[in-house]
Design brief:
Layout: H1 7-18, H2 20-33, H3 65-69, H4 73-82, H5 92-103, H6 106-112, H7 117-121, H8 124-127
Pfam families: Mug135_C
InterPro entries: Mug135-like_C (IPR013902)
Family: Belongs to the UPF0612 family.
Length: 130
């Protein structure tokens, strides 16, 4: 039996082969979104926009919301930069909220009632992949 693919399907397959890191990051965000706050089912690592693994670069792993809330200022800035945030706000709560968005932890954001303005500050590649 022979399968034939439409041009749209072939285009999607080709695009995913060109950007395997983007596909892996999308999967990780979807998985993390289903993990609640990460306390029962730990988050999995979401690679930076350039494909680098944050933990391979010496950053602490983000396995739960508590891990994000306990990040040092320098580590939080490194995560935000790696995830493509250019204009980083001064507010610590907002910074942590942006990291939560970047890794897919949306349930935690709703529970904490993080302002909707974060969505405007979020790089487009993060919003369209989840």
């Amino acid at each position: 039996m022979e399968f034939s693919y439409s041009s749209r399907q072939t285009g999607l397959l080709h695009r995913n082969r060109q950007h395997p890191n983007r596909l892996q990051a999308k999967f990780a965000r979807m998985r993390n979104a289903a993990s609640g706050d990460g306390s029962v089912s730990p988050f999995i690592t979401v690679c930076f926009v350039n494909g680098d693994d944050p933990t391979a670069n010496g950053l602490p792993p983000l396995r739960s919301v508590a891990d994000i809330d306990n990040l040092s200022e320098a580590d939080a800035m490194a995560y935000l930069t790696g995830y493509g945030f250019n204009d980083v706000p001064d507010d610590v709560v907002t910074r942590r909220g942006l990291i939560k968005i970047a890794i897919g932890s949306f349930e935690a954001l709703e529970r904490l009632q993080i302002p909707r303005t974060l969505v405007r500050e979020t790089p487009r590649h993060l919003l369209h992949e989840v």
